[in-house]
Amino acid sequence: MAFLVAGLLLLTELVHSVWLVRVPVWGQIPDPAIPLIIAISFRRPDWGPVVGLGVGLLQDLLFGGSLGLFALSKLIVGHGAGVLGRTVLVDQPLLPWIVTALATVLQQVILVIVLAVTDLLPVSFGAFGQPLLAQVGLNLLAVWPAFAATRLLLRAPRAAGPRERFHVI
Amino acid sequence: MSGRRRTIFFLVMLLAVLVLLTGQVRGEDRRSLGPLGTGVLTALAPLQTVMARVADSLSRSWQLYTEIGRLRVENARLREEVQRLTREVTRLRETAQAARRLETLLAFKLQTPYRVVAARVVGRDPASWFATIVVDRGSADGVVRNSAVVTAEGAVGRVIETTPFTARVLLLSDPRSAVGVILQHSREIGVVEGNGQGDLQIKYLSRASAVPPGDIVITSGQGGVFPRGIVVGRLQTLHAAASGAVFREGTVRAAVDLGRLEEVLILLPEGGPRH
What we know:
A: disordered C terminus, B: rod-shaped
């Protein structure tokens, strides 16, 4: 099962780096890894940080930036999603979309801070304007497929409380 | 995993990433893959290549599809443009031909000693019983009855009626038309009449005349309509004189195509202003 999840993550990042980069929308490219990390973390909260770190490192390798840049932001996103998966009722219908949107914003904040501190790339507050809105919108489009794929791969839910149900997606 | 262990595990990973990132940033290129990173990228390269080829193929197909649609629209637009240009060419050809005709008429007008006015043919006899045409010049322009009508090629006919702005012209081919002529080379005199079928007949040629075929027939100036020297046509055939007949007859091919007149010149009487 872990191999299947790893394979799914690898395939997602290959699609991201080869196909999705050819079709920018509103100048932005969707990041399907974020909703996928959240979907996996909701079902396997302990996997959240590891999945986030692994996907982040893969993105660092494929995208040509400094190693650790996306690994840091995805690690934090994965850990946060895992915490949510353990503490919050995940049967809220809008929860996946809300968490995806917040995670996208969080990643952008982390990236801007790291880039500003390390002086890797020039950044401006414009990164939080229309580009961020476009990024959030595009990532939200990937929520349904990410959660559906995760449900297929991770059929047996984690040990859940009586009130938790995964009938959101 | 207990909560405390999870937190420690996360903090350890966070520290490792920060160390990695710091090492990268301090490096010369700000990116150092190491053997593991290089190995991963090498392993993924074939997959990336295959996926890129698939994407290129799809992109080309999509471009071809959209190109077909664009070409279809472009094709329709160009067809319409071709039709428009064809109409324009036809119109310009017509204009050029009219210009050539008018140029010829103008040249004739400038070199003739007579007072002339140019006129456009605006009507024909619809019943085709009579060989007449209507032109767009009339008494207001100085046109009078029996004014000679010519073109640069030769005689056309005479004015038989006028209104202030139009005039009716009796063509040479009309049976009622008769013009005194002379054959240019043999100097034989005769009369050219219309036969009602679009042809001209020459009559009253001397029985003994030795007229070569093809002789040019010009107006003799007798009759008071046409001045002397205007080409009527060319002698086509000369019939043998009937037994006991005094005169011979023949057919004349008109110099002017009387069935395709578009512009003519009307010779005005002496004494009025030159047009």
